[in-house]
Amino acid sequence: MGVPAFFRWLSRKYPSIIVSCTEEKAKECNGIKIPVDTSKPNPNEVEFDNLYLDMNGIIHPCTHPEDKPAPKNEDEMMVAIFEYIDRLFNIVRPRRLLYMAIDGVAPRAKMNQQRSRRFRASKEGMEGAEEKQRIRQEIMEKGGFLPPEEIKERFDSNCITPGTEFMDNLAKCLRYYIADRLNNDPGWKNLTVILSDASAPGEGEHKIMDYIRRQRAQPNHDPNTHHCLCGADADLIMLGLATHEPNFTIIREEFKPNKPKPCGLCNQFGHETKDCQGLPKEKQGEHDQFADCPPGMEQEFIFIRLCVLKEYLERELTMASLPFTFDVERSIDDWVFMCFFVGNDFLPHLPSLEIREGAIDRLVNIYKNVVHKTGGYLTENGYVNLERVQMIMLAVGEVEDSIFKKRKDDEENFKRRQKEKRKRMKREQHTMLGGQYTPQPLGRGNRSSHQPISNPRHTAYEMRMQDRQNTTPSVSPNTSFTSDGTPSPAGGIKRKTEDSDSEPEPEDNVRLWEAGWKQRYYKNKFDVDINDKKFRRKVVQSYVEGLCWVLRYYYQGCASWKWYYPFHYAPFASDFEGIADMFSDFEKGTKPFRPLEQLMGVFPAASGNFLPLTWRKLMTDPDSSIIDFYPEDFAIDLNGKKYAWQGVALLPFVDERRLRAALAQVYPNLTSEENRRNSLGGDILFVGKHHQLHDFILEQYKSNEKEPVDIPPELCHGIQGKLTLNEYPILPDESVQSPVPLLRDLTQNSSISINFKDPQFQEDFIFKAVVLSGAK
User: In which residue ranges is the amino acid composition biased (Basic residues) (predicted)?
Assistant: First the structure.
């Protein structure tokens, strides 16, 4: 979820929600590794029923880790993913269900964010490779030392998108992995496993939520099911609260700020690639007594207990003398909704609401102050009462001016403190070094203590820094842009002479802290006059639609696969006038894109190698009717932020009708294999031979039953849904071939797989956002 620092804010405000995970480690005996018996009681003193894995949060760190060497090839990546899942399974030890959900084709509202991320990733990857090569050359020319350059193809993380061969192979590997564990791990003995791979449409976490909602609506659902969801995204906390399940825990890696990362050139720690000076001579060869690489620490995990968070929220949201009955569940739903204003994956956050400035606390206080006017809750079962939301927004709008001024004051105070700190450190450094001599590492031997600085690495570094100061910066991540996307004067950098050692300061053309901020904002960001009320209302209308879409997405599922917010920026809170009658409803019966169609919607031309050749040409051919969708370069508006990753990528929005018209010309060129990867799939259910459902499924294959059959809930821990025969099933007494050469084939398989579909409901069915009867 696009809420920077949300988890940090939440964990500081409500510290008791976090508990460290106890992890039992495998033992070694005579050099033989003895795996942990996960069928034994959970060492965390809680027994979980269901474990849900938001797989993309596992795939990314396993394929391109930031804090350790990356896997050498795709096979090693798959093994790393298997080992990561094993660790999570060992900690959580689910007894009923393991649900593995990979991101499939996303709603259009999400595709815009995916497009921005993938264009950025491609641009930053190429720029990073060029910068590394340039610095390497400078260091070597000055006589510095660096490890030999590895000749290997750069892993393009954009391949972690539905429709690519990588994701297709991952699905095959996970099917093998599940079969292997069902056959060989005692902890998996009675487990039901559901795999929703990238061919099944929907974001991973939302496929999980859809499953939970639909099971909750069944008469056989156990209201005291213990759920555990794995993922690092902040929106998982909101989604967990939105289920209203009393026993919901999130497991994620423990966040450790300022975690050291190795330099991309010399592999040493303590500096970034841009500041690399090469390896010192002492670090050459086998006698590397001065190596400063910290040992690789295995990442630890934490539990986030949503039941404790709900207690905190109940205490904070409880209000006396209300004109209506207080309902903690409804008030928590309103809290989830208010968090959307601070940021989410589908809408830009309101300019006046920043998480670091206490925006959520501000919203809660306003919410409690105006509740007597609203006369009720803001939301119900995922539907928004816009008349009441308008009161909240206009109350925020009344203090927008003071918020912007305070933000500027805080920034100036911070800069002043940082400047004083730098001066103090310089004085201390000058005193310590005497301004003449280099410090000597301990154990260096009997070298002269007065050795002058004459290191070619330092020379190269100093020349590079001098070049940067003497050269006018070109368009870069730290460049600000005008409303038409061109670089602002002087590269958008203002720098005072006396503060030349500080970070470049991006120019801010809007100046929200000065009078006339609203006029400048609309002129700079939308290129319209403030008096164009029709346009401003159109922006607010789209944002209101977005709020309704997002809340519905969290509580009921995807209301429209086609809707998206068509602007790069949000309106102001003070613009939310007359919104009560703005929204009607979303178009019914919309369908998701197909996987290869989504790739065309989110990929830059640099990642076109993942697409069929004739499709790829549409991205690069100057005569292509959609060439404008794939700019080679694009502006990044810092929008008041400091770093490029915080800015807004000013990419053109994809016109769906134009895209489909262009693709209609190349669809006939797809091979049968490409057509298979371009088709939408579904979920697969797996069980082992000891599971009560095993023989029931086997009987379906023996009878060659073509029609969907209901799962007998008494055979599957109350899980309900439809089963249909799989075209390429895993069957007992048939070997399962390993897609990873490093791993063995399963020659004595006893597990079985079959297609699974969640219980279906009428399109207008409303899932109730309540605690179920019988819940403890």
Answer: 416-427
- Can you give the pLDDT at residue 133? 86
- CA 546 – CA 344 distance, rounded (Å): 10
Buried b (16+ CB within 10 A) or exposed e, 615-642: bbebbeeeeeebeebbeeebbbbbbbee
Report which secondary-structure segment, H or E, holds 370: helix 359-374
Of residues 25, 10, 207, 21, the one with CA closest to residue 101: 207
In this model, does residue 289 exceed pLDDT 50? no
DSSP state of 452: B
Contact 73, 131 (CB under 8 A): no
SS3 for 402? helix
**How confident is the model over 692-699, as a mean pLDDT?**
98
C-alpha angle 280/285/291, rounded to 5°? 55
Cβ contact 754:684 at 8 Å:
yes
- Model pTM? 0.87
Element of type H or E holding 595: helix 595-602
Tokens of 390: 């308008």
Q: Which pLDDT band holds residue 480 (cuts at 50, 70, 90)?
A: very low
Rounded Cα gap, residues 549 and 586, in angstroms: 8
Tokens of 567: 């602007």
Long-range contacts of 365-370 (CB under 8 A, 24+ apart): 366/392, 366/395, 366/396, 367/334, 367/338, 367/392, 368/317, 368/319, 369/395, 370/395
- Neighbour-count burial of 60, counting CB atoms closer than 10 A to its CB (0-12 exposed, 13-18 middle, 19+ buried): middle
Structure tokens, 21: 């995970």
Angle formed at CA 63 by CA 652 and CA 348, multiple of 5 degrees: 30
Scan for tokens 């791993």, then name that residue. Answer: 743
Structure tokens at 51: 């474990």
Q: Which of 108, 74, 115, 81 is nearest to 607 (CA)?
A: 115
Distance CA 687, CA 727 (A): 17
pLDDT at 272: 79
Helix (H) or strand (E) holding 248: strand 248-253
Residue 754 has pLDDT above 60, yes or no: yes
Which tokens hold the place of 414?
């911070």
| Total length of the chain | 776
Instruction: Read off the pLDDT band of 464 (50, 70, 90).
Output: very low
Q: Are strands 97-101 and 50-54 parallel, antiparallel or unpaired?
A: parallel
What's the CA gap between 54 and 230, in Å, rounded?
6
Cα→Cα distances 410→217, 356, 406, 414, Å: 49, 11, 6, 6
Dist CA 699 CA 712 (whole Å):
13
CA 137 remoteness from chain centre:
35
How many of the other CB atoms lie within 10 Å of CB of 347? Answer: 23
Provide the pLDDT for residue 509: 84
For the chain, state the CA radius of gyration. Answer: 28
Residue 669's Cβ-side half-sphere holds a number of Cα atoms within 13 Å equal to 13
CB atoms within 10 A of CB 200: 21
Residue 723 β-bridge partners:
709, 756
CA-CA-CA-CA torsion for 423, 428, 434, 437, nearest 10 degrees? -90
Q: What is the pLDDT of residue 153?
A: 66
pLDDT, tens only, 418-436: 999 998 888 887 776 654 4
Place of tokens 């109730």: 768
CB 378 within 8 A of CB 317: no
pLDDT tens digits, one per residue of 134-166: 888 888 888 887 877 765 667 889 999 999 999
Strand partners, 709: 723
Bridge partners, residue 452, by sequence: 437
For the chain, list the domains and their CATH numbers.
47-105+162-200+203-257+689-770 (3.40.50.12390), 106-148+592-680 (1.25.40.1050), 308-410+511-575 (no CATH)
Q: Which residues contact 433 (CB under 8 A, 6 or more apart)?
A: 439
The token pair that represents 248 in the structure block: 């919901």
